[in-house]
Specification:
The chain has 39 helices and 23 strands. It has 1470 residues and is an alpha/beta fold. Helix 2 crosses helix 8 and helix 21 packs parallel to helix 23.
Length: 1470
């Protein structure tokens, strides 16, 4: 018997909750818990040992805990934390009791004692030991339990956050021991006074700290002072050490001396990760304070329960980004796991002083014979020999401070020690024969070198010398380090500050990347680079004779290998605390992609900073990038596992072994010429020190490497070689004889491409800037010599041209002038833009509206395509063309003397290449935001297919509109399509990867280089005759500006090109039949009749049936009789003719089994076979149809009821939706799903050997477009479906019915995939989703193609039913999760698929990989929780619903926001 939701209602009524926790919130949270453990009988005799304790043995559940922060912690949200503390204590007790009640209905739960911290105010709180005393007292007084003999489950939540708050003056180890003793006293009390107890020990510290830390990402820097320094590193190591100490204590078996008591340390509670998402104003952080506390407390407890079911050593951290299925005790180990019954051997090694030190000989040999300095002290940094260096220094973080470099293995606390004497870039312990560092290498060239650090200590210690790196430092802290370094240099009597040559190494960035996800704006690549620039500027300005090594930040993602390795003994909790932004994200998640992007941008922007030449203005100073660690990998053992010997005990910092290798790599980089420096030095390689070359014995700089930095200020100007630049004489009176010099006014309409979004942006934060003066079609900044735009080209012909935009700003700024494009605009916004343009042209004194010739460029469609998959109806080609037509009509009717250049819809699909190539530095995490229908998803996905078809339909629609002659009714106006963007070729570099220089930082909008190419292509297209215009665009093509032809020096139009539009294709002869061709190689049945539905082949099916409404009776399939059910032509059950003449599911199956039985023929009830559908049926009629079908099959002498395999297809719900608004209760989603469930239950209980197709109810909104195609259709269809056809466009009623449509789909899918019908091996129900997103078939004129529909404009014709049959058949063969979710209405006789040769079965959840292959019929245990299957299939539905709501909301408010869209949108698509 399963634990049902009703069991959880007991929790709702539990005493003490009603006053504090809203029942509806609790119920909502409980509904998400999936618990399917079998209820067991109470054991006759409870277990005598805690190591064999089963859930059914537990009689009482209790909890105590301290969840508050320490006094004086400076947090201003104590009320929030107190609420959470109360929640966790109470709800953990109640939820655990509910879970255990499935095994023991008599379980009791003991509420936390009054005064518990987190339950009352701090002034009333009592400490943990007093809580323990009180809870024991309450249990003893409880008359419903036998204190001595009943088993108790007690959870102790402890908070280690106050470790340092009370012991600032103590040493770290003493601090830990004191706190350990306090908590040990609590456990000792329970051990002594409580018989028969299983105690969970749970560290809730992170719950207390992380919940509030988001308010100040530097908050932890001030948290702890007893470490001796305020650093996150110290805090994290302190916390981990506390956990480590507890692990060792419990492993010591201190609490396992009795057989009826144990304590198990469960994983510490984790908060939900902070979620980052792009917002109009940049990035926003969604914190835990915005997530429902109650729900989290329940799921935290479920995570705790699941860990109780896991052996020690195998317990998992809690992940609240997903729903938890409740884990059940296994048959092999039906007890709660303890240290003893887990056979646990701790992986945490003891940190005693007897362990072998890492200190060993890490020396090296310097093989260079020439170690002499220059003959005279050089005055140029480009002639600096190693021996000329007199002073060495370093800046950075704990890597340069050498934290933990010489720590003994597993001595994590010692990582706080800074072993500066062995630091790779500046340490000077001993000499090169024993310690390899850069300083010791240089000492072999100049023994008088000064500045290196020795021994250990902080940056303030004397031995630190000029190693001013600070543990925990970020890039923003480096300028402060530079100031201290200069003070030390100037005050050191050994240093002649003016004349001594100095070598300074800077390496920082790891901490910035580790924290970027907490505050991506603060740790942005731009801010990182700015901080580096500030530090280098100080050095450049104030330090003479200096060579600065800027070591590029390494690829920090390699750290994940150590974290994820199951073989390593790394302190993974500590790693997650120190660097959550690196180790937490899942592979290929958007968070991981952000990390990779930020990492690469750190590297790229610092390179750009150095290559700008900013630091090469004097001859005695330079900065050189040393890139040897850019592509470093984690060192591996011979077994291929991460080698932790290269790391300190925390698996984050370098061990001395790595410090020595880094020193060698840095030294070699310094001697390698620029352009030839190694950027992938592997730490586990043998690195032999190089020597200065004889020819160039200097440290290599850009100058002595003969290296030229890339041009930082590229010129995007063009040459125009046209001799004839004169206007027409006399002035042109016809648009067909218009010369470039005749144009006086230039204007443009469109989206962010024309608005100039991000053209000159250097980073994502600047992407909201609209560089209108650089826009390809309308920008007028500078001149053609420097900036290539269409206006600048026209100004070469007419210097008085006006209308172009300049500078930056929104459409509302005066400098935008006649550039009326708006970022984010879609075709529906163009008419408003056209009206604004008209107003400006008519009122501006610089424009003679009647006399001046005008050139108006119009380009739109990218945003429509990017959103197409979310609402194919709204973004249909017909709607798109209608909106363009409305715009052109306005211009045609009201603007005299105008040539409208209509740039064709861009093919956005090639832009995917920028986002799928992992080597390209593009913000892939923004793909969904920029253009989700194109940039996300797999190749060949349905969404991409939809967009591809829509793109072509948009383009064809525009062509037909313009070539119709609609805009050639008088001589002073025309519209010309410029088709060069129909086929876009993405630029690729020599390395084979996309060249991002043509794009803004988002890799979606063009950069100035891209706009320059677009302007040249547009100009040339305007001169090309119609019919000969280029229809492709290559970003990298060498485009030379054309000149007007001498014989026809006009802008090309249809008339002056002598172009005749191709004739309309003659109407094709009507196709006589709608059959299909199918020639599958394997059409034989299984060698033996299968017993499993998951091995069912098409030829094994012997019986076919169907349920439904008039769509399944095939009402009006033939136009000759509008009231006849042509059941023989029904898509899912009709058997008239053959497959060659009529495509139906039975006719397809007859190709595999000619003896198929049950299909209907003709139009009479007598020949209906097993087609029990009835016209007008709704979901409530399905139960009766199901019973009728079962009886027909049971009583049929033609079939073997028990042995024959049956295929049943169910499609219902159209009538429910169409009548929903008339009776919302009768036709509610809940009733629909209940009727569907009752129907399937009948089949499940009474029919053997069945495969059931449930066809997802169609997206019925397309019916509105059909109704709009003619008045007759509108009248007829409204009678059938008033709830969809009567509401006004964008009305709340229409939005509601669309939502209900989606809810019907979603809820039905949840029912199908819930596991309800999976206990039988010979039964399966599969959702076939080809109707989920309905694409309306259109004719050549982009009108609904009525050949697919009956005369009533509601039902399908024979042709439409054939398409449904093909889509259903193909869905049946497609694996679950990969099924096509739309139907492409195109006549193609070869669309039918064949069964897969390897797995020639009808697809089910299990044979698609969503269920265990060895399913236990007595107990269903899914390999994937059922909700995961739903998510895989429903994501499109839910996302579509949400996005449709957003679109609707945006449309409803567009009049309010249209004027300030440009100002508000930071990141916008085309």
């Amino acid at each position: 018997m399963k634990l049902l939701l009703g069991l959880f209602l007991w929790l709702l009524s539990s005493e003490g909750n009603a006053d504090n926790l809203k029942e509806e919130e609790k119920l909502k949270a409980l509904r998400r818990i999936q618990f399917s453990c079998e209820q067991v009988k109470l054991p006759e005799t409870p277990s005598t040992s805690v190591h064999a304790l089963r859930p059914a043995d537990i009689k009482t559940v209790a909890a105590i805990g301290n969840l508050q922060r320490a006094r004086g912690s400076g947090v201003y949200h104590e009320d929030l934390l107190r609420s959470r503390g109360k929640c966790l204590l109470e709800v953990s007790v109640e939820t655990l009791a509910v879970l255990i009640s499935s095994f023991n209905p008599l379980v009791l739960h003991q509420s936390p004692p009054p005064g518990t911290k987190g339950v009352t105010s701090d002034s009333q709180a009592i400490d943990l030991l007093h809580q323990a005393e009180e809870i024991v007292k309450l249990m003893k007084e409880n008359e419903m339990m036998d204190f001595q003999n009943d088993w108790k489950l007690i959870t102790v939540f402890f908070n280690a956050e106050n470790l340092c708050s009370s012991c600032a003056s103590k040493q770290l180890k003493n601090c830990i021991l004191d706190n350990l003793e306090e908590l040990k006293a609590v456990l000792d009390f329970l051990y002594k006074n409580v018989p028969k107890a299983f105690v969970n020990l749970v560290d809730s510290t992170e719950l207390a700290t992380c919940s509030l830390a988001y308010q100040d990402y530097n908050y932890t820097r001030n948290q702890c002072s007893c470490v001796g320094e305020c650093s996150t590193l110290g805090d994290n190591i302190l916390w981990w050490s506390y956990q480590d100490a507890w692990e060792k204590l419990l492993k010591s078996e201190r609490y396992d001396q009795k057989d009826d008591f144990t304590v198990v340390l469960q994983p510490s509670l984790q908060e939900r990760n902070l979620l980052l998402r792009p917002d109009r104003d940049g990035f926003i952080v969604t914190s835990k304070a915005q997530v429902e506390t109650l729900e989290d407390c329940i799921f935290m407890t479920v995570g705790l329960w699941n860990n109780m079911m896991e052996p020690v050593g195998w317990k998992q951290p809690y992940d609240f980004a997903k729903m938890y299925p409740v884990q059940c005790p296994s048959q092999e180990n039906p007890y709660l796991f303890t240290y003893r019954n887990s056979n646990y051997s701790s992986s945490l090694k003891t940190s005693n002083t007897e362990e072998t030190s890492q200190e060993r000989n890490y020396g090296t040999n310097v093989p260079c014979f020439d170690r002499d300095p220059s003959d005279t002290v050089p005055v140029s940094v480009h002639k600096l020999k190693p021996a000329d260096i007199r002073v060495i220094a370093a800046l950075g973080d704990s890597i340069t401070a050498a934290n933990g470099a010489v720590s003994k293995p597993h001595n994590v606390i010692d990582v706080l020690t800074q072993y500066r004497g062995v630091s790779w870039s500046v340490g000077g312990n001993e000499n090169i024969s024993t310690v390899t560092t850069l300083a010791n290498i240089l000492r072999e060239f100049n023994p008088s070198l000064v500045g290196y650090s020795t021994g250990r200590g902080k940056e303030t210690s004397k031995s630190a010398a000029l190693n001013q790196a600070v543990a925990g430092a970020h890039a923003e802290n480096v300028p402060e380090q530079v100031r201290r370094l200069l003070d030390r240099m100037k005050s050191d009597s050994r240093i002649n500050f003016q004349t001594d040559w100095k070598l300074i190494t800077l390496f920082v960035g790891g901490n910035d990347l580790c924290g970027f996800c907490v505050n991506p704006e603060h740790y942005s690549p731009e801010n990182y680079t700015y901080s580096i620039q500030t530090a280098l500027d100080i050095l450049h300005r104030e330090v003479p004779r200096a060579f600065v090594n800027l070591v590029t930040v390494l690829s920090i993602t390699s750290l994940r290998e150590l974290y994820e390795s199951k073989a390593s003994s790394c302190p993974k909790l500590l790693m997650r605390m120190m660097c959550p932004c690196v180790v937490d994200p899942k592979d290929n998640s958007s968070e991981f992609k952000k990390l990779v992007y930020f990492n690469r941008r750190y590297q790229e922007r610092t390179r750009q900073l150095v290559e700008s030449g900013r630091y090469d203005t004097t001859d005695d100073f330079t900065v050189v990038m040393q890139p040897f660690m850019i592509n470093v990998n984690v060192p591996k053992t011979q077994e291929g596992l991460p080698d932790s010997s290269y790391f300190a005990p925390d698996c984050f910092h370098f061990s001395q072994k790595t410090h020595s290798q880094a020193a060698r790599g840095l030294w070699n980089n310094m001697l390698e010429p620029l352009g030839e420096k190694k950027d992938n030095q592997q730490i586990d390689d043998e690195i032999v020190l190089k020597c200065p070359s004889e020819a160039v014995p200097f440290l290599r700089t850009y100058k002595n490497s003969n290296y030229t930095y890339p041009n930082q200020t590229p010129n995007y100007g063009s040459q125009l070689l046209c001799e004839d630049r004169s206007p027409s004489s006399p002035p042109a009176t016809s648009v067909h004889s218009l010369k470039p010099a005749d144009v006086k006014i230039i204007a443009a309409l469109g989206d962010s491409l024309t608005a100039g979004t991000g053209i000159a942006s250097d980073n994502l934060m600047e992407l909201g800037t609209e560089y209108r003066g650089l826009s390809w079609s309308i920008g007028g900044d500078a001149s053609l010599e420097n900036v290539t735009t269409l206006p600048n080209i026209f100004r070469e012909f007419n210097v008085n041209i006006t209308g172009y935009s300049t500078g930056t700003g929104s459409v509302n700024d005066s400098n935008a002038f006649l550039n009326q494009a708006v970022p984010g605009a879609q075709a529906e916004h163009l008419p408003a833009q056209a009206r604004n343009l008209l107003r400006l042209m008519k009122t501006d004194p610089r424009i003679d509206f009647r006399a001046d010739w005008k050139l108006i460029t119009l380009h739109i469609g990218g945003n429509d395509l990017c959103n197409y998959c979310k609402d194919p109806d709204h973004y249909s080609a017909a709607n798109f063309v209608r909106r363009i037509q409305e715009t052109l009509d306005i211009l045609h009717e009201q603007v005299p003397k105008a040539l409208v250049s209509l740039v064709d819809v861009i093919d956005v699909l090639p832009l995917r290449q920028m986002f799928v190539d992992t080597q390209v530095q593009c913000p892939t995490y923004m793909a969904d935001y920029l253009c989700s229908c194109v940039l996300t998803g797999e190749e060949n996905s349905p969404n991409l297919t939809m967009v591809k078809e829509a793109t072509r339909a948009y383009q064809l629609g525009l062509q037909r509109l313009v070539e119709s002659g609609r805009y050639d009714t008088h001589e002073n106006f025309t519209v010309i399509i410029q088709p060069f963007l129909q086929n876009v070729k993405i630029p690729f570099g020599q390395d084979g990867h996309p060249n991002v220089s043509y794009f803004a930082p988002d890799c979606f909008h063009p950069s100035q280089e891209g706009h320059s190419q677009l302007a040249k292509a547009l100009w040339n297209a305007m001169l090309q005759p119609v019919g000969q215009k280029a229809d492709s665009f290559d970003f990298m093509a060498d485009i030379v500006l054309d000149c007007p032809a001498q014989n026809k020096p006009f802008l090309g139009t249809y008339k002056n090109s002598n172009y005749t539009p191709p004739p309309v294709e003659p109407t094709q002869e009507p196709i006589e039949n709608w059959g299909s061709d199918l020639s599958c190689p394997e059409q034989a049945p299984s060698s033996r009749v299968p017993t499993s539905v998951h091995e069912l082949q098409p030829a094994d099916i012997k019986v076919i049936g169907a349920l439904g409404d008039s769509l399944t009776t095939a009402l009006e399939a033939k136009g000759t009789d509008l009231q006849t059910d042509w059941r023989g032509l029904s898509w899912s059950i009709g058997g008239d003719g053959t497959l060659e003449t009529q495509t139906t599911l039975p006719n397809i199956l007859k190709k595999f089994n000619p003896n198929l039985f049950g299909f209907s023929t003709g139009s009479s009830k007598e020949t209906a076979g097993f087609n029990v559908a009835q016209r007008g049926a709704a979901a409530r009629n399905m139960l009766a149809q199901a019973h009728e079908l079962v009886e027909l099959m049971r009583n049929s002498p033609k079939i073997n009821f028990k042995e024959d395999w049956k295929l049943i297809t169910v499609l219902i719900g159209g009538n429910d939706l169409c009548q929903y608004c008339l009776d919302k209760e009768t036709y509610s989603v809940q009733k629909y799903v209940k009727h569907l469930q009752d129907t399937l239950d009948v089949f499940y209980k009474e029919l053997p050997r069945v495969f059931v197709n449930v066809v997802e109810i169609l997206e019925i909104s397309g019916l509105r477009q059909i109704a709009a195609s003619s008045s007759q259709c509108a009248l007829t269809a409204k009678n059938f479906c008033p709830c969809f056809l009567n509401p006004e466009e964008n009305s709340s009623e229409l939005q509601e019915i669309k939502r209900v449509n989606r809810d019907f789909q979603t809820e039905a899918l949840q029912l199908i995939n819930s596991g309800r019908y999976e206990k039988r091996e010979d039964f399966a129900v599969v959702m076939q989703p080809f109707f989920r997103n309905t694409l309306l078939p259109l004719d050549r004129n982009d009108k609904p193609d009525m050949s697919f529909f009956a005369a009533d404009c509601f039902h399908f014709s024979v042709r439409g039913y054939a398409e449904m049959a093909m889509a259903l058949w193909n869905n049946m063969l497609e694996p679950v999760g990969e099924k096509q979710t739309y139907n492409n209405f195109t006549h193609d006789r070869s669309k039918l698929k064949c069964p897969n040769r390897e797995t020639p079965f009808l697809s089910t959840l299990r044979n698609s990989g969503f269920r265990n292959s060895d399913l236990n019929l007595e107990k269903t245990e899914t390999s994937v929780p059922y909700w995961a299957v739903i998510v895989a299939a429903v994501a499109g539905i839910l996302a579509g619903s949400l996005l449709m709501w957003l679109v609707s909301r945006k449309r409803a408010k567009r009049s309010q926001h249209e004027t300030d869209t440009g100002k508000n949108i930071k990141l916008t698509s085309l």
